[in-house]
Design goal:
The chain is an alpha+beta fold. It has five helices and seven strands. The N and C termini lie far apart (63 Å). Pfam families: Hikeshi-like_C, Hikeshi-like_N.
């Protein structure tokens, strides 16, 4: 347990601490004992050895004053025989022989935190949502907004599908061209599809009163009649 955080800015909203022997750390537990001011929370960041960038891990709020972040899964691809390769978009690994890793805490308004979490890769957002470390998405101001409804529907579909994702093929699965019950889908491919559909939604929704086939084609769905 380390409570030795140091204030690193004049406003008193940013704090940092270090993790010794970070190569042996698999999970990081961060918690706050005192409540945040109303409307505020804190983002949690990690500064990996030999890396000048602070990487966002997640957030703490009064509704979720503690969180567990898995560090062992942050390792990038390495040479054969070393570590298991990770998907593109993973942040750099904890250096086994470098200096300590840094942990940063930044107190921010909840809307700013939500915006920062939304910049994470969808696979990371899904993992945070599954662990309860993701802020609840505010309800749309009107249920009659088709674009907002569609975005929530697609996000729900993504969270459901990726909850079954694995970086190893399960027994009996095969990466063949033919689609069967044992086929698998790379998460990166689904992320690209999600981003493509999201960018096309305004134009797609404008055609809802027209041809259903044209609408599905814009979504990337092959339709045969």
């Amino acid at each position: 347990i380390d409570t030795n955080f140091t204030q690193v800015d004049p406003s008193g909203t940013k704090f940092a601490a270090s993790i010794a022997h970070s190569e042996s750390v698999n999970h990081l537990v961060v918690l706050t004992l005192n409540p945040f001011p109303t409307g505020f929370g804190a983002t949690v960041h990690i500064n990996l050895p030999n890396d000048a960038t602070w990487h966002l891990l997640g957030a703490l709020t009064n509704d979720k004053p503690s969180a567990i972040f898995r560090l062992s899964g942050l390792r990038p691809p390495r040479a054969a025989g070393e570590d298991v390769a990770m998907d593109e978009g993973s942040i750099p690994a904890l250096n086994a022989s470098g200096p300590p890793a840094g942990i940063g805490i930044s107190v921010e308004p909840l809307d700013v935190i939500q915006q920062q979490l939304a910049t994470l890769p969808l696979s990371r957002q899904s993992a945070l949502a599954a662990s309860g470390s993701m802020l609840a998405t505010p309800s749309a101001p009107s249920s009659s907004n088709p674009e907002s409804t569609s975005i929530r529907m697609l996000q729900h579909l993504y969270n459901f599908v990726t909850s079954f994702a694995t970086n190893q093929l399960p027994p009996g699965a095969h990466p063949s061209v033919a689609i069967t019950n044992n086929s698998w889908i790379p998460v990166k491919t689904f992320e690209q599809w999600f981003a493509s559909v999201k960018s096309k939604l305004p134009g797609i929704l404008g055609t809802l009163s027209g041809s259903k086939i044209d609408c599905l084609t814009r979504l990337g769905v092959n339709v045969q009649v």
